[in-house]
């Protein structure tokens, strides 16, 4: 990995997202939740970096956005708090990803899985998608005065509920707990069709995420002016 320029830290929730994020000038960080994530990220940013990007998949909130839609965040909102992304970095990402949509992302401390909850969150502020890392990343980047950006891809459409077993399969370390899913299916086999559909959507989202990562290039297109 090149160390000629300060690293960009790419924050993700899952290990597969971190593997896609990895590249020249990028330090992936994943496998933390809630308070532990905030603590680990705060410690990491104290060491300095060129910028922090929230990168990965997100739950769809806008009903017009299908799985695989690439979103360049312009701001992140959680409750009453809202943090804008770096304007220069966001503009650079939009140039690198001309087919992406841009707009507000929502941050949530827990999974948003029901259609009703997705609709309520979208109607509250017009957020396009939701994830569980961006709001923490935005807040801590703001505290440290470090440029912040967000690049997310829709994995589940706004009009589709997320099967409970999909959430149960998200291990705390960022991996997928296959055993928990299999054991859960033995008790609730009716969730299988929803899991299979989510699996197809996840494949599209992962492919779009990888394409977006390649298009963004070294350091996720962070311009020197923003760093």
TrEMBL record:
Residues 41-186 form the Nucleoside phosphorylase domain. GO terms for molecular function: adenosylhomocysteine nucleosidase activity; methylthioadenosine nucleosidase activity. It holds the Pfam family PNP_UDP_1. GO terms for biological process: L-methionine salvage from S-adenosylmethionine; nucleoside metabolic process. Signal peptide: none annotated. GO terms for cellular component: cytosol. It comes from the Bacteria. PANTHER family: 5'-METHYLTHIOADENOSINE/S-ADENOSYLHOMOCYSTEINE NUCLEOSIDASE, 5'-METHYLTHIOADENOSINE_S-ADENOSYLHOMOCYSTEINE NUCLEOSIDASE. This is Hopanoid-associated phosphorylase. It comes from Cupriavidus agavae.
């Amino acid at each position: 990995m090149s160390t000629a320029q300060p690293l960009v830290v790419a924050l993700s929730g899952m290990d597969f997202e971190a593997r896609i994020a990895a590249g020249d000038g990028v330090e992936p960080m994943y496998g933390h939740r809630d308070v532990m994530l905030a603590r680990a990220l705060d410690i990491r940013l104290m060491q300095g970096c060129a910028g922090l990007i929230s990168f990965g998949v997100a739950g769809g909130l806008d009903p017009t956005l299908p799985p695989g839609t690439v979103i360049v965040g312009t701001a992140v909102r959680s409750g009453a708090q809202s943090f804008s992304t770096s304007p220069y970095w966001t503009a650079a990402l939009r140039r690198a990803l001309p087919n992406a949509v841009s707009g507000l992302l929502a941050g949530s401390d827990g999974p948003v899985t029901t259609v009703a909850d997705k609709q309520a969150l979208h109607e509250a502020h017009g957020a396009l998608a939701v994830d569980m890392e961006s709001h923490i990343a935005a807040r801590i980047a703001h505290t440290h005065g470090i440029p912040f950006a967000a690049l997310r891809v829709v994995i589940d459409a706004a009009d589709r509920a997320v099967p409970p077993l999909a959430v149960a399969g998200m291990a705390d370390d960022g991996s997928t707990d296959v055993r928990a899913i299999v054991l859960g299916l033995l008790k609730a086999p009716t969730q299988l069709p929803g899991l299979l559909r989510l699996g197809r959507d996840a494949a599209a989202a992962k492919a779009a995420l990888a394409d977006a990562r390649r298009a963004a290039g070294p350091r996720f297109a962070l311009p020197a002016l923003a760093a």
